[in-house]
Amino acid sequence: MNPGSHPTTRSRSTGSCVKADMRRRCSSLALNSALALGAGLLLFVANSKAAEGTPIPHGTLELVAENQSIAAGHTIHLGLHFQLEKGWHIYWVNPGDSGEPPRLKWRLPPGASVGEVAWPTPRRLGTSTIVDFGYEDDVMLIVPMHAAASMATQGLAQVGAEVKVLVCREMCIPGKAQVSLTLPVKSQAPVPDARNADLFATARKALPRAAPASWRISVTEAKDSFLLSANLGRNVPHVEFFPAAESQIQDAAPQQFIAMAGGFRLTLRKSDQLLKPIERLKGVLVLAGDRGYVIDVPVTKVVAVRRDVGDGINLADSLKEVMLK
What we know:
Number of strands: 23
Distance between the termini: 50 Å
Largest sheet: 9 strands, mixed
Strand content: over 45%
Oligomer: single chain
Mean pLDDT: 82
Radius of gyration: 26 Å
CATH topology of the largest domain: Immunoglobulin-like
Number of helices: 2
């Protein structure tokens, strides 16, 4: 455990971090070889530290860039690369029943701005009673950075971030890391950095895609659940849904899946903390053996309506869907 970091019992909070250092050499006729050896050792240690990243509780964090430089008027992509010890995890934008996602505070050169984090498809973590949404092992969050056309095109620019992160297993440990990198600012378009190409390619494969336009998805709200129906034009053996917003569905409740010809129906139990109707259900739908897909679907509500039957009135089995506005 890192000095200054204290375990918490799965609460939503943040905390502290770490340090390290090194040393040197001798003189006389052996001076030249000693200097060469010292320089080699310093280079080795510096490269090792860069490869290891900045320590966080039970893992490391490194800030990397997809491009070799920054150019005025262009957008490049940065990556926050987390490597975690086995069994430990961090959180998605909606953390689920406990925890909180990484919080970022950027330090950017004048004329630069960052966009929203691209969150990889999460996994369900936890127990039968508490379910978290997050990432284990190795994950990278991609963030776009745009340089204004007015940005000076000479010299070096430092890009940095303060990252507050909650790392959990049976207990949660808050951590805080300062990460940075220095890139030249050039007038020509940025060139990809081959050293980080595989890292960004892998991270992009983990991102959810937009749902295909051919899919027909609807969401109906009943008293204590949402019914998500989908016609995908193909059969799927299983799906999981991750809501983008907290406290809409019961995260630990089983998601009742029924396979249909060309699609499925999925029943999602409402959260006890959902106090008012929602107009749209947003999140990531993960198909078995496939990747995640982003969905954003209007919610319709099922209500019983009165219907005349002969001379009397039947209040029972006539149901009508009306849009929640």
